[in-house]
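Action item from last week, closing it out:
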Amino acid sequence: MEVEERLQDVVSRIQAAERSAKRTKGAVELVAVSKTFDAEAIRPAISAGQRVFGENRVQEAQAKWPEMKGETPDLVLHLIGPLQSNKAAEAVALFDVIETVDREKIARALAAEMQKQGRKPKLYVQVNTGLEPQKAGIAPEETVAFVDLCRRELGLTVEGLMCIPPVEENPGPHFALLAKLAAACKLEKLSMGMSGDFETAIQFGATSVRVGSAIFGTR
């Protein structure tokens, strides 16, 4: 199956999940995760109409996206991998959405860069719903206070929350927790769900799903 066919299959599954969850058609945005794939592998998805993409690493994205954004100006690029503070300037310059604000140091670095560059990518706070030591993200019980710090002290506009549930666990309770935290923060956007569980995420209120291997194949 070609990229275009797999993309259409994922779009159809998203629409079916929206109907099943009694969500409005188009309520869920597809972020096509193109990390580790080169421009030639990504262009067929762009030709098929996909406009929103996700990358894990700033450096890798810098190598391929400026050219593709030049060719197709309405592309929207999400950073969905961990961000180091020394890459904040590059991230603010390149990405339209940064989904992995996960600690105060990063929030401060982004606030300084956004002021300096006059560019305001949308921001999501990453929550470590499973409290996994190897995974980035704010602890659930600290989320409301952290979002408040970003807003009040740093003047950042936080658009939503994102999570990556533990691989071996049922993702449902993690998605439910993220939705509950978003409501407590008065946030409407939820980035949750990947190739294996995006339909479940849509049931729990995801507004965007991050799908890679189901579109581009295995890496």
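Closing note: Strands lie at 29-33, 52-55, 76-79, 97-101, 122-127, 158-163, 189-191, 208-211.
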